[in-house]
């Protein structure tokens, strides 16, 4: 089980939820916070420092503060990104400019999601659109899929099972091909 904050960030900085998150952590809940979508990079820092989240939702504005981006990369922070939603809502200029590749390179652990499939397409549609527009390699897509399991809150045994299936399928599909999609 998990506790998270989401939706409108403006006027609701993470620090306002610190006591609730501290209580939830003592109860053994996983913690997630929507931060750095419409709110400033400071919200990302507060989600990490005050809420001690296990995973950050969006975090697109992290690159406005390079030291914060380095910190998240050094910590291997789990970050859920919703590329089509982030573009359609004006948070990221285009899929080609989405920071997901930079997050991967910098050591963060982004995973792709839809945010709302009825409005922004399925997770699969997000993968396809981002891979095409951002020229992601097969290895990068595979890492994003791996991250979706390793940053989930599934039991470790389930994560291992899913990763083994993914690796077997990926190995079979990569035979005789290059790394470009």
TrEMBL record:
Does Translocase appear among the keywords?
no
Protein name per Swiss-Prot or TrEMBL: Adenosine deaminase domain-containing protein
Q: What is the lineage of its organism?
A: Bacteria, Pseudomonadati, Pseudomonadota, Alphaproteobacteria, Acetobacterales
Q: What's the cofactor?
A: Zn(2+)
Q: Does the keyword Zinc apply?
A: yes
Which PANTHER family does the entry mention? ADENINE DEAMINASE (PTHR43114)
Keyword annotations of the record? Hydrolase, Metal-binding, Zinc
Annotated Adenosine deaminase domain residues: 2-160
Q: Extract the InterPro entries matched here.
A: A_deaminase_dom, Ado/ade_deaminase, Metal_Hydrolase
- The source's superkingdom equals Bacteria
Q: Which family is annotated? A: Belongs to the metallo-dependent hydrolases superfamily. Adenosine and AMP deaminases family.
Q: Which organism is it from?
A: Belnapia mucosa
Q: Which residues form the signal peptide?
A: none
